[in-house]
Every structure is written in C-alpha cells, then in structure tokens.
Design brief:
- There is one protein chain.
- The strands form two sheets. This protein has a four-stranded antiparallel sheet.
- It has one domain.
- Helix content is 14%, strand content 39%.
- With 109 residues, the chain is mainly beta.
- The chain has two helices and six strands; from the N terminus they run E-H-E-E-E-E-H-E.
- Bound molecules: zinc ion.
- Zinc ion binds next to loops.
Length: 109
Amino acid sequence: MAFEIRILCDHADVPAIAQTVLGSVDATSVRRIPVAGGTRSNLLIGAEHRGSHADCTVCDDDGMTLWFLPDGTEQRRPCTGIDYEDLLAAGLLPHAPRREPWQRRAIRD
Ligand SMILES: [Zn+2]
C-alpha cells in the first residue's frame, strides 16, 4: 500500500523530522520545497509500510544506521533507506543547501 506524507515545518526542524518520519516507513520519493518566503519547508514523501531491511544497501541488514545530529555527533537510529549523499542532496541533513528530489532506485530491473 503506497501513500503520501505531507509535512510543513520550519527549515531548522527538517533534519530531525525527516529522520523520524523516514525511519518509520519505506520512502519511495522525497521532495523538499521552500515555502513561506523561504523560512519553512514542505516535505512531500512517497512511502510504503516499513518492511524488512534485509536487502537494504544503506544499513547492515539490521534496520539501523548512523545518523548525524545537528551538534555534529552521531547516533544509531532507524535506517531511512536513503544513503548519506542522497540525504545531503535532498536537503534533509543540517546545513544541506541543495534540494534535489530523491527517488528510490528500482531494486530489480
Ligand atoms: Zn536499511
């Protein structure tokens, strides 16, 4: 069952909210759109119910991954299924200026 999550929040809250939400579903797409004169963000997340991460390329099959916190430290958190470079490109990490839409790659051709 596929569904869409729409979030409106302050820019500064995007990384924490993204981790919480993406760690509880299997995202298929993420778009971050600046709104309210650039002070807030719209997050549009295509998602499915969270499944096993046995075939996940981001975590070590256990559904957990290192997450970078705003203060520069790291914590083990539920895997978002999105690797670091893609999180950065999508603007879902602290101080990530780019906002490229992210789309999950097809697992099988
Ligand atoms: Zn994973």
